[in-house]
Amino acid sequence: MTGFRLAAYIDPGTGSMLFTIIIGLAATALYALKGLRIKIKYLLSGGKAKEAASDKIPYVVYSDNKRYWSVFEPVLDEFEKREIPVVYYTQSQDDPVFKKQYKYVSAEFIGEGSKGFARLNILRAGVVLSTTPGLDVYQWKRSKNVDKYVFITHSIDDGTVYRMFGLDYYDAILQTGQFALEKLRKLEKLRNLPAKDFRVVGSTYMDSMQKKYNERAKASETRRDKKDKTVLLAPSWGESAILSKYGEDIISALVNTGYRIIIRPHPQSFISEKEKMEALQKKFPESERLSWNSDTDNFNCLASSDIMISDFSAVVFDYSFIFDKPVIYAADAFDRSVYDAAWLDEEIWTFEALSKIGKKLKKEDFGRLKDMIDEMTEDKSYEELRKSVRDEGWCNKGLAAGLTVDYLTAGTTSEKSEAKAEAK
What we know:
41% of the residues lie in helices and 14% in strands. The protein has helices at 17-44, 49-53, 69-82, 113-120, 181-190, 204-220, 242-245, 247-255, 269-272, 274-283, 299-304, 315-323, 349-357, 369-378, 382-393, 400-410, 415-423; strands at residues 57-63, 86-90, 105-109, 125-130, 146-152, 172-175, 197-200, 230-233, 260-263, 290-292, 307-310, 327-329, 358-360. The strands form 2 sheets. The protein has a 7-stranded parallel sheet with strand order 3-2-1-4-5-6-7, with helices on both faces. It has a 6-stranded parallel sheet with strand order 10-9-8-11-12-13, with helices on both faces. The relative contact order is 0.11.
């Protein structure tokens, strides 16, 4: 497989390369005018004349969906605090950025699907920051007029559970911990790729969630009756995820516990597995003891539950690291074939971590699921294990936004921020 590169052009919106090309050509003139408007706005908002004259936007942040606002808001706030102009492109018309009163952040909705990608594919920029995998693999192509593409992770993982070739064509990776470096380097070697710049900056969204927890969750926490627990089912999506593998069986088992149940499917499930979700929601409608959650922000359902049941979703780390609550995970027969992990023999870091902080659930355990939930919510032995995995997976707590902007604006973290990180 050495040196192999996915060459097929995939257009999930239309299934047609021709359609996308036509859209791109038709949009070029319009986008050139819009680009000029952005440059003028950039200059008026404080951009240096030298930078504007370079015919490139110095800093661009791109989000393919508003659900990643928690990743980007701290970064944009940091640019704003430093009075450094930055352009934010989003493919969500109702992105929360439009409610912010920024002076140095120029935000623009670039269109959904093919229209947005056509804009990105002719972009002229110095540095582009994104959390969207698949650059130069699917619709989003590297522009020859962008100097550097930087990926920032939106979850705590080792980077091998993205769809195949997900990070290959980025120039730099900003990660939450050093644990991800070894697998990244192995993939680069197997595929004859140049070594990417790898930096441990921490997690912007985890820093924000921790701040929110400190401000809200502790103050509003009330002690509930231990006999009336709330269980959160929060899986990933795809054929290996809980709702695909176990569907009605796992939900029925949860309902039979008598506890309050919150089901929060992965947002992608409502897109890629729409019929399946609709069938399950019809079979298990909302009631006093069961609710379906699709809020953009998952904070409230994480805070209001006593235990989480998941699979390989990185949300288990949000839950364990911030709320310090127990998890049960189902990970039988995980199909690695569509992920970068298929290229490597080692265990995925997510599963290594899950085996330490959670209890594994198999289908034959469904009949005793209530007992498992009771055992995990009372067992204190997992607290130290959660702390150990937290320290490995989430570094530079509270510093991620600053370290990210340091890297984007200087190509390296500043001595000041590095000193803070070391002290931390």
